[in-house]
Amino acid sequence: xxxxxxxxxxxKFIRELKAAGADTMKKCYxxxxxxxxxxxxxxxxxxxxxxxxxxxxxxxxxxxxxxxIWLCHNCNDCSxxxxxxxxxxxxxxxxxxxVIQENAFPRIMGKIVGDPKNIWQAMAIxxxxxxxxxxxxxxxxxxxxxxxxxxxFPVHYIDMIFVPLSALAVLMFAVSMSRFWKNISAExxxxxxxxxxxxxxMETLKEIMLHxxxxxxxxxxxxxxxxxxxxxxxxxxxxTTAWAVFYLYGLKWESPxxxxxxxxxALLGGSTTMVWIARTIFKLVANISAISLLAGGVLIxxxxxxxxxxxxxxxxxxxxxxGIVLLVGLSGFLAQVMRMMNFPPVIAYSTYFIHLVLVFxxxxxxxxxxxxxxxxxxxxxxxxxMMKRDVEM
Length: 393
Ligand code: SF4
Ligand code: SF4
Known about the structure:
Bound molecules: iron/sulfur cluster
Strand content: under 5%
Mean pLDDT: 85
Low-confidence stretches: 310-314
Number of strands: 0
Largest sheet: none
Helix content: 55-70%
Distance between the termini: 36 Å
Oligomer: single chain
């Protein structure tokens, strides 16, 4: 006898999806063209057609447990071929944003960072926090004379803010990830072969580093290039940040590493050439990474404008993130130029302050922003590989 399955649509969830820009989902009439054209859809339980039905029916719990929405790399090949203009690629992007918000810990941060309407609140937190720190420590002014950023905002204060808050963000992210893992692995009764985790994870990392899935896209190949630029820009900047921390605490070198610093000279055998090389390599990696980030951000904007016009609410979450990526690269670059050209203190230090606020947004809000995709996607792909479901076409 056929078994009956009862679904309870979550009307509130449907309204939330529509408000976030997924209104096009109502046009879907289940032709499955999207699943056929998707270059990443596995043979076993293909997507995104089934996710479109789930979204139309408001099956929130089922969507929260879906690993498949994370296998999509948002190339929008499916949206291009959808005969109804239902834009399944964009709907999946909104579903992923909802999953990040639902798994966020604490939930309020998911709401603040995940909802584009709250961008000013999200920015006000670091602004007020920094102003209070500067006020308490007597640094609420723009020092005259040569531009040295640590005179305005001492590096030790920056570390005292960022190190514990980054650790807290990692902890919060770990809680979100454990919720997510529990949800997606519910279909296997949370009984996955433990020995399969490491090989599946390594295979996933290799795929991500090489961006091999992006190369399968037909309609929007430029998206892969933009993603590579942003991805490696971030990695380069993370490396240079760790590098700067090592210079500061390991070698006691204070930025901007002058050629005649006696400590640096002593460590490098008294050779100014060696100091110059150490300083130049550091700057080169930092600048190339910033340029990569900027170029990737510009390319993403160009692609999105080409794809569907500027005034869309569908991707406002993405727009904000792209804007912040661009601004963080630009403000860092400008702050450096202003320091070298000895700009008026009010302009140079204000630019540096803005840069720090944006860096705070990128690092501390990572568990709730678009950047969280990187971790969610890595976990979901690893899971599907463990389930032997990530079939290559
Ligand atoms: S989203 Fe478009 S292509 Fe996919 S099933 Fe619906 S109507 Fe067909
Ligand atoms: S956006 Fe691309 S990867 Fe995602 S479902 Fe559509 S075709 Fe597949």
